Amino acid sequence: MMVEGIYISALLTGLFGGVHCLGMCGGVVGALTFSLEVKNQASWWRMLPFQLAYNGGRILSYLLIGALFGSLGMLLNSLATLLPFQQLLQVFAGLFMIALGLYLAGWWQGIVVVERIGQGLWQKLAPYAQRMRTVKNIRQAGLYGLVWGWLPCGLVYSMLILALSSGGAFEGAMVMLAFGLGTLPNLLLIGAFAFYFTRLARKTWVKAIAGLSVVVMGLWQIYLAMVVSVN
């Protein structure tokens, strides 16, 4: 149940974290759709393969880094007492998700400090992302998403900590796959209705619901870790 619970938490966090996705990736997705429609004079439905390719590339990046963190967690587990250390990582992931939920709700901005950790890497990748903005085919859209998957993001970081506690490379990759699939509906809808969803995400009640949902997911992760320790 512990691993299955992690996957469910990752999926729901991706879904409820759509408010954050609007700020981090929504502009990219909306601009991608808009630029393609202008160039090709096509409807959004004709642009759907490009959106899927972009998101496929983004999720592939999540899979790769999830496998890396899962492998690192397995290595750390082998150097410590397996179960207690894994539980500690899961509790830490839960606490991070609670902090993220407070940030999404607009009640605490501490998570911004964590997002700055990845700025060094992103500064090296940003020029490539800028050059890829002129998307002409599906392959380029996929490559564009592959680069944007490394954008510094507290939501992604919280899932990477969860991947670290998952127990292995495959499990870590599956955590990030579940998370990526959870973000997919929001970002596809953003591509179609960017203006409407941007306005909606700014509403206080929407941010509060999204933030509280992620807080609940964080509390659930801590509960799962505690249940394992009791059993």
UniProtKB/TrEMBL annotation:
The keyword Hydrolase does not apply. Keywords: Membrane, Transmembrane, Transmembrane helix. Residues 10-220 form the Urease accessory protein UreH-like transmembrane domain. It holds the Pfam family DsbD_2. The chain crosses the membrane at residues 6-38, 59-85, 91-114, 141-164, 176-197, 209-230. The keyword Acetylation does not apply. It comes from the Bacteria. InterPro entries: UreH-like_TM_dom. This is Sulfite exporter TauE/SafE family protein. It comes from Thiomicrorhabdus xiamenensis.
